[in-house]
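Predict fold of Cation diffusion facilitator family transporter; 371 aa.
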Amino acid sequence: MADQENPDSDSRPDHEHGHGHGHGHGHGHGHGHGGAGGGVAGRLKGLVGRAAHAVTPHSHDSADKTDTALESSSRGMRVLAVSFAALMVTAALQAVIVVASGSVALLGDTLHNVADALTAVPLAIAFSLGRRAANRRFTYGYGRAEDLAGIVIVVIIAVSAALAGYEAVTRLLDPQDMRAVGWVAAAAVVGFLGNEWVARYRIKVGREIGSAALVADGLHARTDGFTSLAVLLGAGGAALGIPVADPVVGLLITIAICFVLRDAAREIYHRLMDAVDPELVDAAERILSGVRGVRQVGAVRLRWIGHALHAEVDILVDHDMSVVDAHAVAVEAEHRLIHDLPRLRAATVHTDPYGPDGADHHATLSTHRAT
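Predicted 3D structure, encoded as tokens:
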């Protein structure tokens, strides 16, 4: 049973109404929902604890989840720093050989590596912004800065593809001889290995912390590795007396870069459109269904904000349940979600009454709901 409430309602205290729970839940709660103590004394303690919980203003932002989010940002910054250094060293080694060989292809690859290193700048800004606390204007925080950085990276990949294609066509129309072919080949291998290592590092950590922008930047590094391979194959062609091999391979690599561009653009597009893996929704529904007191699971909405998940869910509880007990079920549902759903930082749980038959508990809102 989907419930579309006024988004401004989250700014009201949690207990001005009986069913909206806007909690960013913590891990260290002793709610007394079950098994706390024994006998009458234990049950009395649990009842008092739930009653106090129901009348106390809530700010359940988890210290553990916050620490995890900050650690994710720190890992992202560390990846950017290490990969920036690796790519600049790679470019410096290539630049020395460019001077010795006069290779236009290697010059293009060197400049490409420098550009790839510089993509760390928008991402570093995004990770830094993402660590700022939410406020009354940016109520969800600044995590979306990562998606903006992802757009910049996609544009850079597109420009890289265009430049690579242009250089390939130019060299195809006007092939040039290459000096120090062996050193050019060695520099191409260095470029490929450096970029591939950076790509794997960025993609691995990006997926672990849920950063689509970092994954896209890893894919960009991989495109630069492809460009280096083009230089290597071109050098091989030059050694065999086939100068046209370099631009032909360059065109093939341009096509490969376009496929990488498609994947990166799709990744960022999904984030901008609040797409999530359907398996995460299935997992959230399973978690909620297993919470004691939940009679039915309604709408489940998930979205990424930066590299953290946020959830808004509807659950149905018995219509004759007290406000205190219904709140306890909602808190337990929220608690279970945050513990069991990977990278979920905060959840808002809305409870609806289950029954009696024929009752429409949202009749007042029926004219405001989308058909």
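The chain is about 60% helix and 10% strand.
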